[in-house]
């Protein structure tokens, strides 16, 4: 079987599973959904040994004082958390009934103040907690939010994912070629969400993160400085009760040095992840570009 045919079959299967989930999961109770999610997470832990190893390597490097038992336990908890994220994602179409009642906003006064003044601002969103619940949440906080997204390879799956994320009206713009639209939107007074904590490739800015240099996306700091726009850090935390706490925090923007702004973001992010280590996306090779650059 050719690689092209194999990928086509894989994408069709993935779309079929996603479609069934989107049809069935909004009808299940919260308890059943979370139980199912944890079970899926356990299966993924066994079925994805490569990702399991990546998570273990990342945790050992980030927390060098941890023993192997704690690392493995945290990785198992991490996969269970990702499984719950997955099933909750397909409950987004039932947002008002299933998820909105379980959202608890911490101090959102900074958001309300910016909205009241019609001030454009940027929102740095890390892959922490269940970040997907922020997609339907933001249209309830701001009249015209926008987020940059990475399109999925399968157009049908991409359309399904966008329907789930856009259930309350969030505008999504493709990351590739979307910077011009972001600048125009900021000048119109809008709020722009950026999931920008993953590896930024060889063109990223190298910033210390958990004791190692990491390639970081420069656009949140650069846009905030150039357009004199406030920059918010926005993250979620899953509680044992099944609730999600949502936090908002203004990041001081350095008027001359984007690296300093990025350092502030990642120092704060380190502290937040340290409080909830099982809830950040450890299965991603976050430091790969820095490792390649140091080896070259």
Q: Which helices and strands appear, and what pairs or packs with what?
A:
Elements lengths: L2 H22 L5 H18 L1 H14 L5 H22 L5 H5 L3 E3 L3 H8 L4 E4 L9 H4 L7 E5 L5 H11 L5 E4 L4 H9 L3 E4 L10 E5 L2 E5 L2 H8 L4 E8 L5 E8 L6 H18 L12 H8 L1
Parallel strand pairs: 1-9, 2-5, 2-8, 3-4, 3-5
Antiparallel strand pairs: 6-7, 8-9
Helix pairs in contact: 1-8, 2-4, 3-4, 10-11
Question: What features would you describe in this structure?
Answer:
The chain has 296 residues and is α/β, with parallel strands linked by helices. The protein has one domain. Helix content is 50%, strand content 16%. The protein contains twelve helices and nine strands. Strands 1-9-8-2-5-3-4 form a seven-stranded mixed beta sheet, with helices on both faces. A two-stranded antiparallel sheet has the order 6-7. Strand 6 and strand 7 form a beta hairpin. The chain is globular and about 50 Å long. The model has no long low-confidence stretch (mean pLDDT 92).
Measured between the Cα atoms of the first and last residue, the distance is 36 Å
Q: Which descriptor suits the 3D outline?
A: globular
Q: What's the main sheet like? A: 7 strands, mixed
Number of strands: 9
Secondary structure: helix percent: 40-55%
Whole-number tally of structural domains: 1
Major sheet: arrangement of strands: 1-9-8-2-5-3-4
